[in-house]
Each structure stands twice: as C-alpha cells, then as structure tokens.
C-alpha cells in the first residue's frame, strides 16, 4: 500500500484541481514553444512530472509541501545518460500523442498504469542539443498504487516534495552559446536542462503562478551530443 493511500480521495481531488488550475496560466499556444527551426529534423519525446500527495496532506496547504513528484536515477546499464537524474519519459512512438507516450513510459519505468483522466496539463516544448523536442506531461498518480522501478531502466526512485525544487536556479554564461545555462539545485547538487528546465518551469508556473518560458535556456556543453 502506497503512502498516498492515507490521503483521502477528496483531498487528492482538491490537489489535482489546484495543479490543473495553476497550469492554465500557460495558454495553449505557449505549449509549442520551440520554433519551427528548432523542431526541424528533431525526434519527438515526452517526459512526465508524475505527482503524488505527500502523506498527511490536507488539500489546503502550500502545494510545495503537499505534493511530491517522481524523480529517478537512470540505470548504469543504459547507453544514454546512464546514472543521471531524470523524469520518467522517452520517445513518442508513431501514432502516439505526448500524453499517451508519457503514460506509457510511466507504466514501463515505474509500473503505474495511469488513464487519460490523470493528465493535468502540459508545459512548453523543450528542444535539446541531442536532437529531440521534449514535451513535458503533468500526471497525477495518487491512488494508482505504489511505484515499482523497472531495474532495466531505473536504478533509484525518489519522491521529493515540490519544496525541493522551490529554490532559485543559477544561470551561467558559456563562450559556446549566447543563451544562459540553467542549473537547478536539487538535494546536494545541480540539475541541468532539459530536466532542470522542466523542473524550473513547473516550479514557476505551479508554485508561483508565473508563465515563465524555458525553451531558450541552454544545456551544458557536455550534453551537446
């Protein structure tokens, strides 16, 4: 039985609707923030902010304290980005929407089967240096069971409260790009884009009500491949 089982359904519904309402600060046209030039020749992918209630949540406190999200560390056996912090996600297959791909990846990576009613909204597309355009999908997983990491893809699964990402990021300048490199503090280290950019926009939109854009934020040079 998951920790969210102790949070009443009515409380979970209030939290879901509060997050859904907060996401409405981004108009639909903002969700495809990447320009046509950025999207040209790139593959489509989805990542998820998979949300769960914090045990003891009342539904009326700050979302930063009442809602957690799923964060994984990728398995060392993976060829790409092994050992890095990540949000559940992957390529969008032919015929899939971003929402469908996000739900499928959550099932594959952490064993949760989430229906379409669990989709709360989308954040801005983010074009990566490695050839993808990523669409972040916000999902509610409370009451869906206990996440079980797939050892082929996930080494460690964490459920930090949103308060962990409610910190000011760093913006660095690099000679290789005119755009700032974002570093989001998380635990005892910094997370870079694209994960850092997604977490930062989610924090800005959902926790602070600011329609902050992130598609222009740069990745560190080591991620340009």
Topology:
Elements (H helix, E strand, L loop, with lengths): L8 H15 L12 H4 L3 E11 L9 H4 E3 L1 E4 L10 E2 L2 E3 L6 H13 L8 E4 L3 E2 L4 E9 L13 E5 L11 E5 L2 E10 L2 E4 L2 H14 L17
Parallel strand pairs: 1-8
Antiparallel strand pairs: 1-2, 1-5, 3-4, 3-9, 6-8, 7-8, 10-11, 11-12
List segments where confidence is low: pLDDT < 50 over at least 5 consecutive residues. Answer: none
The CATH topology is given as Nucleoside Triphosphate Pyrophosphohydrolase
Separate helix tally: 5
The outline comes out as globular
The overall pLDDT, averaged over residues, is 90
* Largest beta-sheet characterization: 6 strands, mixed
Strand residues, percent: 25-35%
Secondary structure tally: strands: 12
* SSE topology string: HHEHEEEEHEEEEEEEH
Radius of gyration: 17 Å
**CATH architectural group:** Alpha-Beta Complex
Q: What does this protein structure show overall?
A:
- It is a single chain.
- This protein has 225 residues and is of the alpha+beta class.
- The protein has a single domain (3-165), classed as Nucleoside Triphosphate Pyrophosphohydrolase (Alpha-Beta Complex).
- Helix content is 22%, strand content 28%.
- The chain contains 5 helices and 12 strands.
- The chain has helices at residues 9-23, 36-39, 63-66, 98-110, 195-208, and strands at residues 43-53, 67-69, 71-74, 85-86, 89-91, 119-122, 126-127, 132-140, 154-158, 170-174, 177-186, 189-192.
- The strands form 3 sheets. Strands 1, 2, 5, 6, 7 and 8 form a 6-stranded mixed sheet that branches. A 3-stranded antiparallel sheet has the order 4-3-9, with no helix packed on it.
- The longest helix is centred in the N-terminal third of the chain and has 15 residues, at 9-23.
- The mean pLDDT is 90.
């Amino acid at each position: 039985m998951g920790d969210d089982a102790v949070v009443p359904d009515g409380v979970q519904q209030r939290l879901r609707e509060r997050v859904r309402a907060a996401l409405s600060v981004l108009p639909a046209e903002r969700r495809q923030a990447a320009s046509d030039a950025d999207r040209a020749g790139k593959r489509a992918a989805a990542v998820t902010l998979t949300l769960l209630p914090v045990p003891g949540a009342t539904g009326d406190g700050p979302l930063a304290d009442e809602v957690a999200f799923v964060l994984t560390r990728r398995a060392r056996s993976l060829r790409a980005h092994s050992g890095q912090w990540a949000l559940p996600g992957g390529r969008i297959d032919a015929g899939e929407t971003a929402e469908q791909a996000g739900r499928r990846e959550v099932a594959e990576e952490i064993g949760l089967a989430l229906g379409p009613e669990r989709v709360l909204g989308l954040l801005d597309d983010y074009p990566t240096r490695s050839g993808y355009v990523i669409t972040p999908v916000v999902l509610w997983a409370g009451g869906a069971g206990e996440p079980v990491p797939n050892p082929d893809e996930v080494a460690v699964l964490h459920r930090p409260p949103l308060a962990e990402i409610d910190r000011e990021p760093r913006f660095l300048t690099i000679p290789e790009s005119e755009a700032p490199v974002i570093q989001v503090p998380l635990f005892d280290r910094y997370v870079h884009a694209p994960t850092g950019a997604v977490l930062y926009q989610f924090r800005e939109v959902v926790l602070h009500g600011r329609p902050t854009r992130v598609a222009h934020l740069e990745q560190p040079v080591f991620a340009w491949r």
